[in-house]
Amino acid sequence: MPYVSVFGVDHYYEWLTEGETGPNGIKPIMVFIHGWGGSCRYWRSTARSLSSQFDCLLYDMRGFGQSRIKTNDREAVLARGYELDTFADDLAELLNALEIDRIWLNSHSTGASVAALFLNQYGDRVNQAILTCNGIFEYDKKAFEAFYTFGGYVVRFRPAWLSRIPLAPRVFMARFLSRPIPSAERKAFLQDYLSADGDIALGTIYTAVSKRATEIMPAAFKAIAVPTLLVSGEYDQITPAKLGKQAAVLNPEMIKYVEIKNTGHFPMLEAPQIYLEEVNNFLNVA
């Protein structure tokens, strides 16, 4: 399996290209960023559908999927902290290591927050961007503290045997979805959640939903200078569509907003054809 070392962590990555022959140096490159608790593998079906136009690069963020932190490196890696802009730096360094200059960027959920910050810091490397199921929210001390308490429990209680319960993937994914997705996708996401690094998973909960995030993310959306598509799921319970609308109106010249009906937090899996149609329309006219 291919890995590249980024700030002390071996980052897993994979190419999905037409004919599965690897990047040819001719097609443009689209990079995919997954969300919290997941891995790059839930992007594979979308990437395959776009592989006639792009060489698609998928990777697992630090501490998620197969980008695991080695015991000997843990102290130094965790000392970098869990702020999302450090994950944007990770992506920049990964691109440097793979000698990739300019990209198209597709991202989801917490990964879309990383993408928005990447557009601020490294926007000169991006031609167009897609942010899926993301937005801005207001600080609510009591609600955030309750979320941290719940999040801490969710991260700490992750017994391996949970994946062996037949209905566990369906129950686990129920809050994320409005339409059904393939059983294999549900199982994969539960496995990714169970294997995520505990320190990184908990740390990113505190940074992604924080007072600082409510302060920096509106500014990040306003500062985007790259043509960007922001996609929301109509019935998304994790990042409600209204939060995406609020982000898009901050920068109407650069951000096009689309809401996909009857979908939840994974519109690319719940309504793949509609999602791809919206993405292709954007790519062709932006």
Topology, element by element:
Elements: E1 3-6, E2 9-16, E3 29-33, H1 44-50, E4 55-59, H2 74-78, H3 84-97, E5 103-108, H4 110-122, E6 126-132, H5 141-156, H6 168-173, H7 183-195, H8 198-208, H9 211-223, E7 228-233, H10 241-248, E8 255-260, H11 267-270, H12 272-285
Helix pairs in contact: 3-4, 4-9, 5-8
Q: Which keywords apply here?
A:
alpha/beta; 8 strands; 8-stranded mixed beta sheet; single chain; 12 helices; 286 residues
Description:
The protein has 286 residues and is of the alpha/beta class. The protein is 43% helix and 16% strand. It contains twelve helices and eight strands. It has an eight-stranded mixed beta sheet, sandwiched between helices. Strand 7, helix 10 and strand 8 form a beta-alpha-beta unit. Helix 3 crosses helix 4, helix 4 crosses helix 9 and helix 5 runs antiparallel to helix 8. The longest helix has 16 residues. It is globular, with a radius of gyration of 18 Å. The two termini are 35 Å apart.
